[in-house]
Write a structure and sequence with these properties.
The complex is a heterodimer. By secondary structure, chain A is an all-beta fold. The radius of gyration of chain A is 14 Å and the shape is globular. The N and C termini of chain A lie far apart (41 Å). In chain B, a hairpin with a 2-residue loop joins strand 5 and strand 6. The relative contact order of chain B is 0.34. Chain B starts with a strand and ends with a strand. Helix content of chain B is 0%, strand content 50%. Chain B is mainly β. Chain B is built from no helices and 11 strands. The chains are: A mainly beta, B mainly beta. The interface between A and B is medium-sized, with 21 and 22 residues.
Chain lengths: 113, 115
């Protein structure tokens, strides 16, 4: 069975702080994809990143970076120098071949000015 | 850039009424999905649809739910007799192929409120 755990329910930081959102997943498949989505207060799901199970290279995109460690089944997301606009719920998700997405419970991030 | 669209953005209905949520997937996509997110909870898979058939459905997708592709562009989710617990955000998604299942594009969602 697939499962995604995001242990942090809510995080509050002050603007310009760095923050890491944790994601731990469970799957028996060797081929799978991991995702992060942002859900702002308006409710839509904003795609942030997709990473396949064979690519463990870390990725950086502006203030965002992702650390994928297969050995610990983790796919953590770091926001550097957080901004108020980063306030949202962030979902980690897992997908395997031909199957639907399994989402984690989400982490609500509040960035205070 | 092509995108998935959903209408309406917000639907309010009385308990027991039928509702139809509409989605227009990306034009060359062949796989379609519905997901549900109860307020404050995680996004949950409801159903996937391909070649005019349901290819997979979750336990949530009971006899009250149905999906249809009535024409070449729309993909609908019907709830026959809404219950209070059907209040949620409903997301439609589409992907180009089974091989590209990982590239699911999500619509902006329809917020359903059942009174």
């Amino acid at each position: 069975a697939q499962k995604v755990t995001q242990a942090q329910t809510e995080i509050s930081v002050v603007e310009k702080e760095d923050v890491t959102l944790d994601c731990v997943y469970e799957t028996r498949d060797t081929t799978y994809y991991l995702f992060w989505y942002k859900q702002p207060p308006s409710g839509e799901l904003v795609f942030l990143i997709r990473r396949n199970s064979f690519d463990e290279q870390n990725e950086i995109s502006g203030r965002y970076s992702w650390n994928f460690q297969k050995s610990t089944s983790s796919f953590n997301f770091t926001i550097t120098a957080s901004q108020v606009v980063d306030s949202a719920v962030y979902f980690c998700a897992l997908s395997r071949y031909g199957q639907n997405f399994v989402f984690g419970p989400g982490t609500r991030l509040s960035v205070l000015p | 850039e092509p995108e998935v669209t959903q209408t309406p953005s917000h639907q309010v209905t009385q308990m027991g009424q039928e509702v139809i949520l509409r989605c227009v997937p990306i034009s060359n996509h062949l796989y379609f999905y519905w997901y549900r997110q109860i307020l404050g909870q995680k996004v949950e898979f409801l159903v996937s649809f391909y070649n005019n058939e349901i290819s997979e459905k979750s336990e949530i997708f009971d006899d009250q739910f149905s999906v249809e592709r009535p024409d070449g562009s729309n993909f609908t989710l019907k709830i026959r007799s809404t219950k209070l617990e059907d209040s949620a955000m409903y997301f439609c998604a589409s992907s180009e192929s089974r091989q590209k299942y990982n590239e699911q594009f999500f619509g902006p969602g329809t917020r359903l409120t059942v009174l």
